[in-house]
Design a protein that fits this description.
Blueprint lengths: L1 E12 L5 H24 L8 H12 L21 H34 L19 E2 L5 E2 L5 E7 L4 E10 L7 E2 L3 E5 L2 E12 L5 H7 L4 E7 L6 E7 L4 E7 L2 H22 L27
């Protein structure tokens, strides 16, 4: 089975003062993601685990529970009153950034060791962790509900508490044949949008060789490009190679003449600007097939 993914972008309609709530939700999301990025930096072994295993390990390191009353790096010291699904979405965002950063760091170290082994000076700067965070807040199940064709309920941070906010939606509707993922709050200019990833499963198509050889009714169009009288020659063939029809596309002489005209303009401009020496100027248009304008050659 194969899958295809796409994203549905829908505009959110809300009261003007509620814009600050979406901004506060995104700021809190990035604050939590930055915290977990620091936790991963302190415990790089987490990256050797799968995403689900890493999620469990990071929650044990940071989340206070009855069975885990004293975590090593408690999240409550940074921010409090974070819903579980909101926290897990931020953890996955931090994991993605951390995996990317440490992968680039590993490549940089390998390049440096290779250069030093050859006795060369290595000038490439190492990658640095994100200095600022500006990720869109991903809303897992529990952060949204009652999604309908034209409305949705979102759980947002107002700056002081969590509140359910009903927003109207406008834009392309979600197709029923697709599996819907977790939506994200995305800011575009001064307006907020809801981006929803969609995934559709389908059977892998057979290789082109098998498709052609197993369907006798298949017809192919072969195109041969030319640079002389005919621009192209097109033939429709059967699977066995029998030619059913042939078409010649003319206009080659006109294109060739236009090309020579442009090469002439290039030669005249080069002569005026003095970019090339007198002896190296284009002697004739017929021999200038490979001449092309350079970035410093003006075309008037």
């Amino acid at each position: 089975m194969a899958k295809a993914t796409t994203t549905i972008r829908q505009s959110l309609h809300y009261q003007p003062h509620q814009t600050a709530w979406f901004a506060a939700t995104q700021a809190l999301f990035n604050r939590v993601a930055a915290f977990y990025f620091e936790v991963i930096q302190a415990h790089e072994g987490v990256l050797d685990l799968s995403n689900n295993e890493a999620l469990t390990a990071l929650e044990k390191l940071t989340h206070t529970t009855y069975r885990n009353p004293h975590p090593i790096m408690p999240l409550e010291d940074e921010v409090s009153d974070i819903p579980a699904m909101f926290r897990r979405a931020a953890i996955h965002a931090a994991l993605g950034s951390a995996r990317s950063f440490f992968a680039h760091l590993k490549k940089w170290r390998a390049k440096k060791e290779k250069a030093q082994a050859k006795g060369k000076t290595f000038h490439e700067r190492p990658p640095v962790p994100p200095l600022t965070w500006n990720k869109s807040a991903t809303l897992y199940a529990g952060q949204w509900k009652d999604r309908q064709t034209g409305s949705i309920l979102l759980k947002v941070w107002t700056g002081t508490c969590w509140s359910w906010l009903k927003c109207r939606l406008s834009g392309r509707e979600v197709p029923l044949a697709h599996e819907m993922g977790s939506p994200s709050l995305v800011r575009r200019g001064s307006h907020w949008w809801l981006h929803t990833p969609l995934e559709k499963q389908f059977t892998n198509p057979a290789k082109i060789e098998k498709q052609v050889t197993t369907k006798q009714e298949t017809k192919m169009c072969a195109v041969d490009l030319n640079l002389d009288t005919h621009l192209a020659v097109c033939t429709v063939q059967t699977v066995e190679g029998t030619i059913l029809a042939t078409t010649f596309i003319g206009g080659g002489q006109a294109i060739n003449g236009f090309r020579k005209q442009q090469l002439g303009r290039i030669a005249r401009n080069r002569k005026q600007t003095g970019i090339i020496a007198e002896a190296s100027r284009i002697p004739s248009l017929s021999g200038a097939r490979s001449a092309m304008p350079t970035r410093t050659s003006p075309i008037r």
